[in-house]
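User: Can you help me understand a structure? I only have the sequence.
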Amino acid sequence: MARIAVGGFGHETNSFVSHRADYKYFADHRDRPPLVKGEAIFSWLNEGAFPISAFMAAMKDHHTLVPLVWAHGAAGGTVTADAYERIVGEMIGRLSDAMPVDAVYLDLHGAMVAEPFEDAEGELLRRVRAVVGEAPVVISLDYHANITPEMVDHSDGIVIFRTYPHVDRPETGQRAAQLLSHLLGRSRPVGRALRKLPFLIPTTAQCTLIEPSRSITNGTKLLTGDLLSLSYAAGFPPSDLYWCGPAVVAHANTQEAADSAVNEFFQMIVALEADFEVALLSPEDGVARALEIAQTSTRPIILADIQDNPGGGGSADTTGILAALVAANVSGAVVGILCDPRAAEAAHVA
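Assistant: Let's start by predicting it. Here is the structure, written out as tokens:
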């Protein structure tokens, strides 16, 4: 029975908005659990649909789980230095106190940018590696991760969501458990490879329900021969860092196996570059098209402002579509999300 430290820290950072993700942002209980520490991880996350929940369910009857710290926020602005150092500092402190451990599993995101560190996850993993030495470290990442060399060097296996919309979070945790189980009692794999694609993929072209992303994610592998993991991340363009963008990453028992798998996968994706192009409409053209469809449709028609999407960390305060709706004298329309404190206050008064 091994001692496995478990924890997580995740955030999808949009570097182009003015607001910041502070400590309170992670500590508050909103659409996901708040910052949890130690044994509270078990009570908050045992039944959740997060990767760490499925990982713990798969491992708890076979190994001793040592809880550290877990905090995940939705997409938003850059993580403050105070929040990063307090959360990561406590995670590393608890890990140091728990030593020796046989392995570490971390539920991360992969697209976090913090004020002190552009590569926030790479720095976190560097600190973890400094504590645990040669113990295996396996991480799970969001499909929108921006993978860096440091993240690859300091981990021994990377498992990534295979779906967008993200409906395989539990399965990702299960795959991480399978991989870490294989690594227990073994030395760190010597083979690791990372190839970054030479282009960015807009989130509108990343859906895995359609091509080309469906075939790409179907090509990922786990525990195949000398190959431990072959994963693909589509990247998160609003994270403004040097290593932003899609990537292919592998860990293997040999460097030859890692290089071969990554290079073949990389070439296949590069050949599909043109297939990622998606036509975008201006607000005016979008409204005109919606009015045309509405003449025969019995269902609601949705206009998505993808540039100011709060699900991607946008501030939800642009009015381009609203202005186009008003200009076209559209009736029966609803603006789903608009962040305007003064308008909200006036509405409450009314």
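Now, to help you interpret it: The mean pLDDT is 96. Residues 248 and 262 are 6 Å apart (CA to CA). Let me know which part you'd like to focus on.
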